[in-house]
Amino acid sequence: MRRRLALVTGAVVAAGLLTAPLFTAQAAPTLLSQGHAVTASSTENAAFPASAAVDGDPGTRWSSQASDPQTLQVDLGSVHTLNQVVLQWEAAYATAFTLQASTDGSQWSTVYSTTTGTGGTQTLPVAGSGRYVRLATTKRATQWGVSLWEFQVFGDGSAQACGSADAALRQPATASSVQSDAFPASAAFDGDLGTRWSSLAADPQWIQVDLGSPRPVCGVDLTWETAYASAYTIQLSTDGSSWSTAATVAGTGGTEHPAVSGTARYVRLTATARATQWGVSLWEFAVHTSDSATPTTTPTTTPTNPGGCPWVGSTAPVADRVNQLMAVMTPQQKVKVLHGNGATGPYIGNTDPVPELCIPALGLQDGPAGVGDGLDGVTQFPAPVSAAATWDTGLLNRYGSAMGAEFAGKGVDIALGPTINLVRDPRWGRDFETYAEDPYLAGAAGTATIQGIQSQGVMAQAKHAAAYNVEAGASRGTPSDNVIVDDRTLHELYLPAFQQVASQGQVASMMCAYNEINGVPACQSAGVLTQAIKQDAGWGGFVGSDWGSATGGARQLANGGLDMEMPGGAFFGQGLLDAVSRGEVTQARVDDMVRRVLTQMFRFGLFDRARRGTPQSVVTNAANVATARDVAAAGTVLLKNTGVLPLTAATKSIALSGGDGIDPQNIGGGSAKVNPSPASVNPINGIKARAGSGVTVSYVDGAGEHVQTPNIPGAVAAAKAADVAIVFASYGESETQDLDSIDLQHQQNDLIDAVASANPRTVVVLNTGSAVTMPWLGKVAAVLEGWYPGQENGNALASLLYGDVNPSGKLPVSFPKQLADLPTANVQQFPGANDRIEYSEGLNVGYRWYDSRNLEPLFPFGFGLSYTTFGFSNLVVTPQGTNGTATVTATVTNTGTRAGADVVQLYVGQPAGNGEPPKQLKGFRKVALNPGQSAQVSFPLTPRDLAHWTGSWTTNAGQYRVYVGDSSRNVPLSGTLTVS
């Protein structure tokens, strides 16, 4: 996200005049372009990709190089009738450009042309049809490249979208040759990614499928085995004798989607050059047509088995219904429910139905922060780290419930989240999408969120089991991604959250991780999946693989505890049947896998109702947006305040600076990325709306994560003239890529330091996914950590700045003063080296490390200020009862002058001989109090809370210390519990 907006250095622009473009109502009924594949002639840099122009987020943009001409082209997926294009230009617009349409990507017709472009938002009527729509600019209005917030193509809705169903599935197929009878042509059309067609080792070769009747073909998906074709054509025919070439391709292997359009009964691939010495080989050859778009509801299936489907609509117990169904299932039908079909539509993960037994298909969708994978019409909720910072299980449940309702409204069966892995190091690229550095807090937050999601009839899939705390870059999922961790640390830190969401949260499913654990791939780890999670936690759900994390073979995966393979069936299709026939996997184990999946399908009513929506459904609403706003506000942590906050009526001028003021880091990247609907509220707009007309709000784009030439002098000048200065700063996180540093980049520290020097009443607002260093901390008046706050960022922030909401967030992670203070500062520990990631810090992760080393953090775990103050008194420790549970009570009092909330935190220190860290979180409770009001808080302490791992959970006799306060470093109450 480029942060340049004002083109004149030093310009200070009133916030009311400088706002990110918002969506405007369009006359056209159907937006066709959003989220589709897009290419451009150039990009200014990687921060401004072509995809940003069709992502539905007017806070991100595509920017080209500074030259003419430039093009931006979107693939709508199939031919549509076009009637309108909306261009939302950034300040760098084009004065001369054309809009062109094409059905095949090679022959273009011009549907609009101008030499007097005006910039801003241009709503342009067009007339034509095409699958591809291209903007071709020939003259820039500025010295910069051209830049678009959004490129929106609308159609009249009459054209049918390219269907996600495979029209070639199980249709008659023939081929020029086969390597042997084990690799027939039919294997490429059976929907099983574990079977393939392979030809003889000669050129050319062909394979063709008969669709049964002429169909409007709009796409082809090819999934190659290693032996792929480096050159091939796709041909279409209505009669099998006269052929037309629909695509000529230089193949790259893997999964390819050649653009194809035409009417055909027969579809043929002709390979003219092989990439290897072998013949060509296809796992799957799928054909899509525009007359097979995904239906809006699941069609009623007529059972073909003689006994019907008595388990459907039955009031019998779930276990009985499962047994009744499994009694009539064939081995082939059983394995069909244990793997995906490899398709990426209608959902990111899909299984095939078994219509003859009324078993519905499953749809799986990311992710841990709401409905992801580019789907629109959803709410961009705050990132899970923000939700965890609320320390409010009631609000976390509401957060999960709102997300669950949106998943349900999209027709999703399994929500791929939440992420409950620990924050072991603040450089991990996925810290933003998980909860905490502490297993108790991670488990409690995960349980509350899961219960909310599943209350809406959607299965949650907690991830990623286990010890997955490094992205490892290109090494992810390889033997180099090998976590070396001792058994005690694994059981005390990295497994408890998974066990808690299993036993207390009753999560339907869990996902196994990419990494290896002590040399064993996580998806093959019977010690983790079978023993620790299924058996020790008494859990009846099923384990699914991450996309591509299932490796090795059917024997290792099934016996290791994996129950469902995603996204395809390389191992759990025919491979699993073969493993059973060879005696490598027992039929009892397969039946256990099937039973676990079917049990959850019955439990969540999938046999008894149709889907409640489609991926195209609009599911955001005012209530969910309000939830997003409340979580963002409650999760923001006030780290410092010398009295500048809350702002009062005496504040008449506010100088805003920093790239995140207008283009904020609202969400992280990867599978947890969620699009805002309709658009996010940036801090400028939120503050300006709350401040009112009597307050001057100015903005200078002084620095940002991607600004190369920040306007620090302009920000300083504005700060000197204002009553209060607010500086916005951030860093971004994303799946697949860890951070090198937790320092703010691109002169953001310089900006903050300069503004604070100019105005002592400077407030810093941070949007980071985890901990960040603050070399300027002593110079600023206040600091707010807002994490990644979602689409209601500006409104939530304004409510906190003005005291409409009293800050109550607490840190779910420790903030170190410098990178060298981390327990994982050694490269062998993070990100790993020499094919090993050493967890040699053992139990001393997060605050446990700082306490055990008597090292002062920048801000401790559990810390967060308020606009009021709190006191603690009356600690009472009641000894263990007959069930081994003790009770701790304490009183918390609001000793200030404002209503507010504090989080009462309970920590326990074990006897020194047990070898545990000095203290560990074992309970928390958020309490809202009026000025002068007190409340008594009570915590149970179970034997498990007092135990440590010695090969089993052991509670030794001795003196256990009990601490109560509101951070890991502020525990004014302490007492002793004697365990005999």
Largest sheet: 8 strands, antiparallel
Binned strand content: 25-35%
Number of helices: 17
- What does the oligomeric state look like here? single chain
Q: Summarize model confidence as the mean pLDDT.
A: 90
- Gross morphology is globular
* Radius of gyration, taken over Cα atoms and rounded to an integer in Å: 29 Å
Structural class call reads alpha+beta
Contiguous low-pLDDT stretches (5 residues minimum) are 1-29, 293-306
Describe the structure.
This protein is α+β, with helices and mostly antiparallel strands and about 1000 residues long. About 15% of the residues lie in helices and about 25% in strands. The protein has 17 helices and 42 strands. The strands form eight sheets. Strands 2, 3, 4, 5, 6, 7, 8 and 9 form an eight-stranded antiparallel sheet that branches. Strands 10, 11, 12, 13, 14, 15, 16 and 17 form an eight-stranded antiparallel sheet that branches. It is globular. It starts with 12 loop residues before the first strand and ends with a strand. The relative contact order is 0.09.
